[in-house]
Amino acid sequence: MDKDDGAMLTIGELSAELGLPTHILRYWETKFTELRPLQRSGNRRYYRPADVALAKRINELLNTRGFTIKGAQKELRSGAGQKAPVAEAKAAPQAPPPTASAPGNMAPLRAIRRRLAEALAAA
């Protein structure tokens, strides 16, 4: 059964939508103070649309863009975390400032990830 766009989601529904286990969402609640779903009896979590959007943004920062938890926290606090990914892609192409999360610094990690994926595929 599909819900309306403005409906609250349970932790199970949100985890299925993001493709993550529920314990990851509960962990994020401890690390990102902005992520505060409603908790009802029995500690059942209900994510409002704003919470869902924030969880999707956190997921993008951590799992797509390769940020660390601290890096994602800084990105969200700085307000840069509010930009839509499409808006970032349309910005004038410039070299990113040298930081720990710059794409050039991620190349060795991506190479390791690729080799691991190849090894798992061969197994």
List keywords for this structure.
7% strand, Multidrug-efflux Transporter Regulator, Chain: A, Domain 2, 123 residues, 3 strands, three-stranded antiparallel β-sheet, 6 helices, mainly alpha
Summarize the structure.
The protein has 123 residues and is mainly alpha-helical. The chain contains 6 helices and 3 strands.
Task: Describe the model.
The chain is mainly alpha-helical and 123 residues long. The protein is built from six helices and three strands; from the N terminus they run E-H-H-E-E-H-H-H-H. The chain has helices at residues 11-18, 22-31, 49-64, 69-78, 85-89, 103-122, and strands at residues 9-10, 38-40, 44-47. The chain has a three-stranded antiparallel beta sheet with strand order 1-3-2. The protein is globular and about 45 Å long. Residues 83-92 have low confidence and may be disordered.
